[in-house]
Amino acid sequence: MLVGGPARQADEGGLGGRHGEEGRGRRAAASTPFRRRRDGCRRVSLASRRDTRRRSDDIDLVVDNAGINGYGPFAEVDAGLLTRVLNVNVVALTALTRAAVTGMPARGRGAVINVASLPAFAGDLPPDALPRRAVYAGSKGYAVTFTRALAAELAGTPLRVQVVCPGLTATEFHLGAGDTPVRGERRVHDEGGMPAADVVTASLAGLEAGEVVCVPGLTDAEAVARPAKAELGLRAGSSSRMAARYSHGE
Questions:
Q1: Superfamily assignment of 2-221 in CATH?
Q2: More reliable by pLDDT, 20 or 206
Q3: Is the dihedral of CA 179, 5, 197, 201 positive or negative?
């Protein structure tokens, strides 16, 4: 098993070590598509097909739990921090997934769990009760769409992919924006939330049940399918003619 999480603050949802406990007995690989930079950060590389196959030869499960939030008003947050949010939440997730799935088909098994968040579905909700989160929410929206599209691409193969979208989780994630790691003893932000162990249990149970989108706290399982139906309605807009509401001058 390989867990993606370049820094303690980036262990979003606290799933890193806990998935490791659940994943005992699965083979692990030490190499990842990260390359160390002089400043101590890690730069992600979409490696060659040969490299990624070699790296994923004995990986059965990848849990990409790396994530930082970069919360704050979009025009005021440091541009470097927003770039880091995209590198961790989007580029690293994509690179780790690719490094894993290139070797899995030949072995006839394998799974990838990408950790997103419910803000992926909260794009236009006002920021009163939620953090100012434009880039974070966008990056998690990418994780959801990417994983769903990949699941459709891999349908009929023995590979399984899932995106888990927890709500507020009882970890230290909200104690920082991602510009520096949260240091000291492991803590939980004041808001509390679902225990990380429950998020892991739901994710692994959902994976076994074939859920592509897992929302650990959602009691109405059918709600996951409703956005897909809405998307089909939007696809009706693929037309050669402009909708009548836009043709005021005609």
A1: NAD(P)-binding Rossmann-like Domain (3.40.50.720)
A2: 206
A3: positive
